[in-house]
Here is the input.
Amino acid sequence: MLLLGNAIVDLVMRVPALPERGGDVVSTDTTFVTGGGFNVLAAARRLGLPAVYAGSHGSGPFGDRVRADLAREGIEVLLAPLPDTDTGFCVALVDDDGERTFATSLGAEARLTDADAAAVLAALRPGDLVQVSGYALAHPAGGPVLARLIARLPPDARVFLDPGPLVADIPEDVLRVALARCDWISCNQREGRLLTGLDDARRTAAALAARLGPDTGVILRADAAGCWLVPPGGEAVHVPGRQVTAVDSNGAGDAHAGALLALLGGGLDPLDAVRGANAAAAFAVTRRGPATGPTRDELLGFLDGDGPAASTVRSALGAGLGALG
Here is the structure.
């Protein structure tokens, strides 16, 4: 798989609750970790899917950290670092309920150029899986470049769109291109509401499917409730989540997306792939940190006792994922 998005550094601060406007709060724990699109790449790679970071990155200490963590996970970096700027960062406030709130400072990852886009197109292989991040689409400079790249992707590339929290900030002409080309869209309920104006999860998933057409699948993530799935040409169905004690929801959607890519890449049908992705997301929220997607053995252990699900996931993860990107 290739990620057309952003790998950045997260400053994660655990707080009892968000402060009131103009107030302050003392963090009980603070860490620097690589996040953003890295979380999706790591989640997919840990389940055996070859992964490539095809976004921009900088030459300062944040860029060095990102590249080191990508290398540690066995993720290839396609583009050379930009010499005149560093990779950006995000402040993530995680409260005692496990909910997270973000503020992001853009850096090199926002500077995708047409030359970079040409390099990405040249690196694509037949049948590649391509994950597109809404964060990248929302960048004023890089978003239009990414839209032009998406429009030029070969027909056999399978495109997965995560519109992300900044979906309302994506220029309409840029978002239109991404929605027209994607084979799958995965979003949470807030993002689905911003795209459709609807609050009900089933109706939101169905409305997205109607908007995108019968060739595009829809996943509307609903946290502990699991998600709503509309397979291409199908009807909305609720896929229950797994009940766990959440300690940190940061990165749960990324774990879901990465697992979905790996399981669909392994040949599972959408319903079984989503069941496995729900389990991966549930596992992730029981760990602290944004990049907490499970390894193959961890996911199978988590599914222990769920015979049919464990069997299908085991089959997919042993199906020769090395042949896919």
